[in-house]
Amino acid sequence: MVSESYYLALSAVLFVIGVTGVVVRRNPLVIFMSIELALNAANLALVAFGHRHGSADGQALVFFVMAVAAAEVAVGLAIIVVIFRTRHRLSVDDLSLMRW
Amino acid sequence: MAAVAFAIIALIVVGSALGLVLKRNPIHGALFLVVNLGGIAALYLMLGAEFLAAAQVIVYAGAIMVLFVFAIMVLIPGKEETGPDPRRRYRLAAVPIGAALLVELTLIVARRGAAPPGPAVAGGVETIGRLLFTNYLFPFELTSLLLLAAMVGVMLLAKRT
Q: Per residue in B23-52, pLDDT tens?
């Protein structure tokens, strides 16, 4: 039996890798995948906490996170496709229109 | 036995996560992410969440990653990050900040200490389904609305104007 603390530590490592990926990478697709990584780390923490407290509510929350992530990916990829269609380049550094 | 399995899966999961962030080619990143999601599904199984493990493989490693690979193929990136990075100095600052975040999170996790193990929880379809249709009925219905809104929004965005 592995203690839940190890799952939480693993989840923390994955979350940090995901956040660093969001900042370091320039390709919006890879940034999106890094966000998925961070979401999964949070999901793992939810399941681990649910396991620790002997309740299934954490798993229900993970179910909702999955549904929201699916919607988010669909909309996000559509936005990326539209950006690529208008600019013919794909780098987050080009998208500074709304920055002061 | 369980500890050995956990160590192996944790190595695979962390390694594939690093591969996603470090590899330049987004297709390689997508394949690394599939490995990562599969490993997390295995961890769900070890935690007794059978339904979530199945949903993870079907929804994440299946549907979402197909969408990602499809978008990568359509947009043909891969040569987008080859040029010199004009903001390299700022980007590299992410590494120490990420390390600081990791230390912070580990401190929080370590301070909680080990709680006494609660009663074992069944993670099968029946438990989750019962919970979704009683305690979480309203959020469940809201999710359907969210998915509908996402579908309409994607159609609107993808329409050639």
A: 888 889 999 999 999 999 999 999 888 999
pLDDT for position B80: 58
Q: Which two tokens stand for residue B25?
A: 């080619």
Residue with tokens 């909309």: A75
CA dist., res. A75 & res. A72, Å (int)? 5
A14 to B14: CB separation less than 8 angstroms, yes or no:
yes
Global pTM value: 0.89
CB B128 to CB A59 under 8 A?
Answer: yes
ipTM: 0.89
- Per-residue CA distances from A8 to A45, B80, B102, B114, B118 (Å): 5, 35, 12, 11, 16
Tokens coding B26 = 């987004």
Helix (H, G, I), strand (E, B) or coil at B138: helix
* DSSP conformation letters of B33-52: HHHHHHHHHHHHHHTT-HHH
Give me the residue label for tokens 């193929």: B73
Amino acid occupying residue B16: S
Count the alpha carbons within 13 Å of B55 in the hemisphere toward its beta carbon. Answer: 22
Q: Between A and B, how many CB-CB pairs are < 8 A?
A: 221
